Amino acid sequence: MMNRLAMVAAAACLSLVGTAQAQTTLILGEAGPNRGARAASLQHFVDEVAARSGGDLTIDVQWGGALFKANAARQSIADGVADLGTIISVYFPQEMVGYGIADLPLVNADAWVGMRATDDLMRSSQAIQASLADQNLVYLGTFTTSQVNIGCSDTAIRSVDDIDGLKVRGVGAYGDTFKDFGANMVAMSIYDAYQGLDTGLLDCSQGYSYAMAALKQQEVIDSYTLLNWGQVGALGLFMNKDVYDGLDPEAQAVLAEAGIAMADKLGELITADNEAAIATMREAGVEIIELDAAERDKLVERGATYVEEWIQKASAMGMDGEALLAEYNALLAKYAEERDSQGYPWTR
Fold it and tell me: Helix/strand/coil (H, E, C) string of the chain?
């Protein structure tokens, strides 16, 4: 007959086995380093998943491209190299065309509004979900680089007329629109822009406030124009669909809730970082210029060419591009109204 000590030991072993079976650890691949606002919001997602699941669902993040580089993320996640991870749409313009709506040069300058509108569209659009499912992917949550502005050395942009003839490092369709206004575009990474501005290879560089300050570009610019235009927001978390389908509904709900919370956290962090960056530029003697709304609208009008191109690409992939754009614009208005009436989530 089993003595009491043996019975307790056996019960403990059974309990451990049951716990091990209840717990699931997912592997997340992230090409970027574990620093900055986006990394902090990703860690917030990881922490929220553990907390909301009571520890039953945990995530092991492999930072810095340990599992795959950014340009291999889509296929790597679909193939199961990682269970989930970050995908940047610009590397996969055809496959991620639906998500690419978040990169369009629309009137979409607020980081939180843009992320929540994008998140809502990605969760509600059956066409986008079907396209992702065909790639063995499921959407979980979104990030943003925040709004695109421009810093200049020995010159300033106060109107669209000031763009003509400038040597500019651009960002996506925002750079293409500047080219249409007569800018001479220079292919250069944001990391090399400091030297470009310092040596005269560049007159101006488009970028994001927090990134420009982090790269100390306030040392080599005289003016910084807030375009109040749009942002680059088509980068986010996606999951291998086979793995996702293997989770119970409660775990799937936890991932969705944590994904929404991630956007709120990044909105809080990146808004604060951008405000601090502009203060740093002012302290360094950089002139901060707020582009007049009428001038901004000229950028939006010219940028409509690239919005139309996106509509055609989306339609070619079997989506109703015009309907998706209309829905997205309505969601931008919805979350802008929520911000105006209730404030940001972190201030309520």
Answer: CCCHHHHHHHHHHHHHHHHHHHCEEEEEECCCCCCCHHHHHHHHHHHHHHHHCCCCEEEEEECCCCCCCHHHHHHHHHHCCCCEEEEEHHHCCCCCCCHHHHHCCCCCCCHHHHHHHHHHHHHHCHHHHHHHHHCCEEEEEECCCCECEEEECCCCCCCHHHHCCCEEECCHHHHHHHHHCCCEECCCCCCCHHHHHHHCCCCEEEECHHHHHHCCHHHCCCEEEECCCCECCCEEEEEEHHHHHCCCHHHHHHHHHHHHHHHHHHHHHHHHHHHHHHHHHHHCCCEEEECCHHHHHHHHHHHHHHHHHHHHHHHHCCCCHHHHHHHHHHHHHHHHHHHHHHCCHHHC
Per-residue pLDDT of the chain (348 residues; tens, 9 = 90+): 333 333 333 333 333 334 334 699 999 999 999 999 999 999 999 999 999 999 999 999 999 999 999 999 999 999 999 999 999 999 999 999 999 999 999 999 999 999 999 999 999 999 999 999 999 999 999 999 999 999 999 999 999 999 999 999 999 999 999 999 999 999 999 999 999 999 999 999 999 999 999 999 999 999 999 999 999 999 999 999 999 999 999 999 999 999 999 999 999 999 999 999 999 999 999 999 999 999 999 999 999 999 999 999 999 999 999 999 999 999 999 999 999 999 999 999
Q: Is 317 exposed, middle or buried (0-12, 13-18, 19+ CB in 10 A)?
A: middle
Rounded to two decimals, the pTM is: 0.91
